[in-house]
Oxidoreductase, Gfo/Idh/MocA family protein (Robiginitalea biformata), 378 residues
Amino acid sequence: MPEKIKLGILGGGGDSLIGVLHRVAAHMYDSYEITGAVFNPDHAQSLEFARELGISTDRIYPDFDTLIAEETKLPESERIQVCSIQTPNFLHYPMAKKLLENGFHVICEKPMTTTYEEAKTLRDLHEKSGKVFTVTHTYTGYPMVRQMREMIKAGALGKIHKVDARYYQGWINPIIHDKEKRNSVWRLDPKKAGISSCMGDIGVHAFNMVEFTTGLKIKSLLCDFNYLYDDNVMDVDGTVLIRMDDHVKGVIRASQVATGEENGLAITIYGEKAGFRWEQERPNFLYLLSDTEPVRVYKPGHAYNSELSLDGTKLPAGHPEGIFDAMGNIYRGVAKAIRGQKYNDGEFPTMTDGVRGLNFVEATVASHKSGNTWVDLD
């Protein structure tokens, strides 16, 4: 068995959902070991959290700069190889930039940066570095999403006509309607979250899902946001019309105020031969739609699935897999890339996906602010 990859973690301490998700994913295929970390800006809390996890405190650093300084002093065989960035959005760019400059591979939560210009700067730096970089669009790791991608690539739908992607949540309702709360939460603070809340946090996942599954690029869009209150400067709901080609169009809908919704990411893709429908809250079912035949259902773990889907399936058919497994599949793909092993280009989102995501977010904001006009993506 190959030696485990030495993993550093930035953020994700305490009761952070993202932190648990990344740690479980990193352990899933026995490819990584947590070697060092800055779990929390408070060093004492970071040390205590490491003890709770049973991790040696020798390389739990007081801050990010100290981690870089101390790790780069170590021999190549001992130092952290890849760092996972799980901090609030505004820290992603400076951390990712410094990691690449100092020879680390990077696993970064989305959005990769808070501006498109930062994303392009990071892309140029990444190209020179020769390091592996992934943005954790977790949902691309689901076996049935990968199955849909491979079947579309093989022509199962024929020419694509229309795409309908949505991501509905209701979690911000208790915050947005309380003036004091909405002026204090970091996701509604542009200095920490970037220029968009709803579209930058969840709408970008729907955008990524459209391009990942169809293999097409969105060329232009028209966006309409809802802020709900005049003193709220960040979108909490939005609808985006998209054009992928002259005759391939669609819609991306995202909301954080969809009352009663939990984590409602879903996508439907319609083609000349058939259609696909997949929902994140029921991830083990991929529906193939037809005008002439009954609906066909694909499920994970069966021999009829693609190699990419089966490679990301850990359990026999009939055993539900979920979001931890999806993130684990991304970490597994990154491990293959770091080790120089062969991998499918659908195994983990890349720097390109991160840059495209920021291009999308900024275009939606520009479209809304210009009076709901069409805006081209690069």
